[in-house]
């Protein structure tokens, strides 16, 4: 994945780097002298993906913080030899409708069974991230959605078991979209037997009652209420 930084949308790049294994794009940009203002676009397919960020010079002393912190989901007594190194590019969505926000429950094939997150998943070969979101949302929840905009980007790095049981040095790079569902139906998982156990619409008044994974909770705190309010304003107008 290539990261491009521009000071104004459509402007010339002032920052450019390939996202290495375990790199946090926000940290790399900061250590290059720039603060990320907001993500602008994600173009291309998984083989040649380019993410463009709006940035501005932060003007502060640069103190390298070193590699992104690596978590471990292994047991304390579990031996670790040479984990398989894997960077996974994935796309997810904050999907809103008149019924609330769309959520998916992690299955027993994951490290967090019973916890809840956002619909989405890995970008397939030849696929662009927006198409990934639409496909994954339908597979995991049965909903047809409209992509509104590229919203955010997350990076997470850990060592743990993959759904197939292989121990991996895993770098998750998540592209987050805002999306709307104009005709919500009761959620249903079509991709049975995968990493999604169930899915549902969560009313706006009940968002805090859900056991969200940390990444999803952070995104909801940052963007959730604004998206839900914008949906109500659109319908009112």
Report on the architecture of this protein:
- There is one protein chain.
- This protein has helices spanning 25-31, 129-141, 214-236; strands at 2-6, 13-18, 34-43, 50-57, 71-72, 84-97, 100-106, 116-117, 120-122, 146-161, 167-180, 196-202.
- With 237 residues, it is an alpha+beta fold.
- The protein folds into two domains: 2-57, no CATH class; 83-236, Alpha-Beta Complex (Nucleoside Triphosphate Pyrophosphohydrolase).
- The strands form two sheets. Strands 5, 6, 7, 8, 9, 10, 11 and 12 form an eight-stranded mixed beta sheet that branches. A four-stranded mixed beta sheet has the order 2-1-4-3, with helices on one face.
- It is globular.
- The termini are far apart.
């Amino acid at each position: 994945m290539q990261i491009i930084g521009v000071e104004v949308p459509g402007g010339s790049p002032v920052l450019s780097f390939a996202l290495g294994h375990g790199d946090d794009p926000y940290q790399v940009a900061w250590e290059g002298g720039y603060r990320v203002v907001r993500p602008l676009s994600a173009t291309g397919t998984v083989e040649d993906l380019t993410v463009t960020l709006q940035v501005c010079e932060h003007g502060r002393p640069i103190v390298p913080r070193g590699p992104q912190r690596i978590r471990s989901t292994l047991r304390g007594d579990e031996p670790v030899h040479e984990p398989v190194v894997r960077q996974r590019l994935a796309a997810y969505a904050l999907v809103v409708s008149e019924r609330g926000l769309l959520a998916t429950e992690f299955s027993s094939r994951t490290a967090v069974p019973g916890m809840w997150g956002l619909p989405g998943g890995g970008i397939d070969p030849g696929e662009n991230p927006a198409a990934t979101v639409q496909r994954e949302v339908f597979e995991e929840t049965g909903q047809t959605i409209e992509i509104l905009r590229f919203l955010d980007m997350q990076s997470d790095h850990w060592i743990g078991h993959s759904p197939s049981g292989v121990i991996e040095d895993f770098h998750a790079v998540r592209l987050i979209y805002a999306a709307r569902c104009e005709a919500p139906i009761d959620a249903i998982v079509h991709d049975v037997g995968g990493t999604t156990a169930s899915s549902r619409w969560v009313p706006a008044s009940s968002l805090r009652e859900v056991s969200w994974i940390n990444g999803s909770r952070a995104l909801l705190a940052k963007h959730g209420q604004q998206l839900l309010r914008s949906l109500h304003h659109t319908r009112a107008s």
